[in-house]
Amino acid sequence: MHVMLHEGLLQRRQREPMANFHSWDSYFYPPPHSTAMRNIADIRDPDGLRVYEYKVTGRRHRQLKTTPDLVEHTYDAAHVRAIHRYLFQDVYEWAGQYRTVNISKGMTDFADVATGQIDRGT
Question: pTM of the prediction?
């Protein structure tokens, strides 16, 4: 499946205020698309989103490898957030932000919010 980002949609979404991601459900579209995470391109098919995410983050990764100073190197929690923001900026409006809920993808659980596995740099 080939997914293209409509530049006008991206620009409009970047100007809109960030949604309030306060619960697990708030990261996802409502039924019948509740298996797809909310995203800037408004792709509601999880397979299409996976392809799109892979494509655009791959492009951003290549840019970052070519030009490392696109992200300030502070070697702390802010640095990790800056890398995440850069890689996922075209996919998720919450890219680079601390999450308030635990999240997983497939069989992979990401850092646990409640146990402090996410270093908030405080």
Answer: 0.74
